[in-house]
Amino acid sequence: MKTLKLIxxxxxxxxxxxxxxxxxxxxxxxxxxxxxxxxxxxINFHESGNSDLPTLKWNGEVGSISIASSIPGLEVNSSNGxxxxxxxxxxxxxxxxxxxxxxxxxxxxTLQISNEFMGEFEGGINNNPASTTLTTSGLxxxxxxxxxxxxxxxxxxxxxxxxxxxxxxxxHFSMDGSPAVITMKGDLVPGYNPFISGFYYxxxxxxxxxxVGYFKIKMN
Length: 220
Description:
- By secondary structure, the chain is mainly beta.
- The chain has two domains: 33-116, Immunoglobulins (Immunoglobulin-like, Sandwich), CATH 2.60.40; 119-219, Lipocalin (Beta Barrel), CATH 2.40.128.
- It is built from one helix and 17 strands.
- It has one helix at 2-25, and strands spanning 33-35, 40-44, 49-50, 55-57, 64-67, 74-76, 83-85, 92-101, 106-116, 119-125, 136-143, 148-153, 156-165, 168-175, 182-189, 195-202, 213-219.
- A hairpin with a 6-residue loop joins strand 6 and strand 7 (83-85).
């Protein structure tokens, strides 16, 4: 009887050791992997678009993809990881994190979109800074991404420069053949129908109290 018990004990020990050995030989589970061809996207203001497909590996179990924090005008396809942006994406540089998750774990990647201001705007002005009623319309401004712009009104043309401080756009321009400078300073209201509104001045100064009139121009 003692011999039988000893044999059984040895068999059990062999089975346990064998099982432990197999568990130790198995590799640890690997979580998802995701990477994009580029980490910085340079886009034009008020234009929709999307990224290329990322390199995506679920390593055994398919999960889902999301953006860590909600950003207006930005979303990601939860299955294939393609990032898309809409016209209402905020102006400037937006940094965001894409997260791929399955039951094993998650992988994050930080990306950046640079939404540069540019585009064609049309609108009008008045000669009364206390009023928002436009008395002259049909002014056209073509803002270029290099900080220059073109201007036209009926048969009159001109050119100038612009700068941005946050959502405030300052424009300096002159009519062709004229040394006089007109400055417009206004706030850009983004979204699906962006516009700029504010005041205009004669010369480069935008000192409060020297406003000549009000302007409002909308993106074409």
